[in-house]
Specification:
flat; homodimer; Tetracycline Repressor, domain 2
DNA sequence: ACCTGAACACCGTTCAAGT
DNA sequence: ACCTGAACACCGTTCAAGT
């Protein structure tokens, strides 16, 4: 819905949508989702907040545009022969992008706005699931399950890291559990037997995803 | 950290933390996470926004307090004999509570702040995983995986529902995919073979959780 | 000891006016 | 056609003052 000015009537545009999205993307990458505001974009643009609305419908719209730009940056991985490996590699590309851009995860999880660019991945994931022997119904369900698991993994890991930042590196949930172990014998046994369990990060995601994929494929 | 006034010096308190948390909980339940503000709580309390800070450290703190109150309301389910059924029933209790209170999901996923009340569930989930034959390391990982899957399931389902609300009931992601099917043969095949796939809701969560649990237990 | 009003430093967005 | 300033209706929180 970009305004394409056919001809040259009226005042020439000083701002462009591309510039605006570019600045939004930079703020999001550097400062995160909370830091983005129309007023901030305007400031970096050297114009008034309201000028942005001539090129972009709303702040939500601006974020969606930034999201599709981000999707274009995802490197398309080499695809292995084995279909299950292929599934893994494809999801991992998405995981890596979202892990590096927490703001994008929030938008994607909450608003479900997909740009055309991401469909390259979707298409190949579908193919790979089918090659694993799943029906189309099974593929549809599998895709949805892995997407949910991926969103949850990133969300929980990010939340944990964020909470630790706020409270000077103390894993607060752990601390809290330790102080209440007395009332909960099984929790106590677990904390003693596996005291330094940290389930964050890419390696753990890969490990978990393998378990999940085995579960999905064996269930059919 | 509640201020316990020993003796009766000074002005008597008109407000109490319990009242404040009660009102916060009501706003959260009725209007959702975005609607909560100190100013709104103050209004319903019939006092100035700043009086709240005498009883509660910050808005974040207030939300955490409301969250623990919510945890107290979760009905503790009857636990079946079979350990895998037990795991399912316990997670489902948490799922139901979070599905009914989206604001709580946001807090829990982002801030990782747990109240003591929820540990009843944690303890029993641990026991059940161990009874399924998992080691303590395995249990720790399993717990983490299911938590991530649960968070992701709720988040994605809620996001989808929210997006549909905003755009008059149209499943936008689906619409969008249909319009780009031309470039993506596998996507097209899937959309034709499984056209009305809706993966939302409690029943699908149960179904998926069973697959996930089978995958986890068989992997050990 | 508890509560309040004014103020600070922010928001997204509307609307009428300027160039 | 494009940009702007003032204004609206909000935020959480600090700080000094009142009772």
């Amino acid at each position: 819905m970009e305004k394409t000015h056919t001809g040259a009537r009226g005042r020439p545009a000083r701002l462009s949508r591309t510039d605006i999205v570019e600045i939004a993307k930079r703020i999001l990458k550097k400062k995160g989702g909370d830091a983005l505001s129309m007023r901030r974009v305007a400031e970096e643009l050297g114009s008034s907040p309201m000028s942005i609305y001539r090129h972009v419908e709303s702040m939500d719209h601006l974020i969606v545009l930034a999201l599709d730009e981000l999707a274009k940056e995802i490197p398309k991985p080499d695809l292995p022969e084995d279909p299950q490996d292929r599934v893994l590699v494809l999801w991992l590309a998405l995981y890596d992008c979202l892990a590096a851009n927490p703001w994008a995860l929030d938008v994607l999880a909450k608003e479900m706005s997909i740009g055309p660019t991401i469909l390259w991945f979707v298409d190949r994931i579908i193919k790979s699931f089918v090659d694993c022997g799943l029906s189309y119904e099974g593929t549809s369900q599998a895709y949805n399950m892995v997407w949910k698991f991926t969103v949850g993994s990133l969300m929980v890991d990010q939340g944990q890291t964020y909470a630790e930042e706020r409270f000077d590196g103390t894993p607060i949930a752990r601390q809290f559990m330790i102080s209440h172990m007395g009332d909960h014998p099984n929790l106590k046994a677990l904390m003693s037997a596996a005291p330094d369990a940290d389930h964050r990060g890419r390696d753990r995601y890969v490990e978990n995803l393998k378990i999940l994929l085995d579960g999905i494929i064996n269930s059919k």
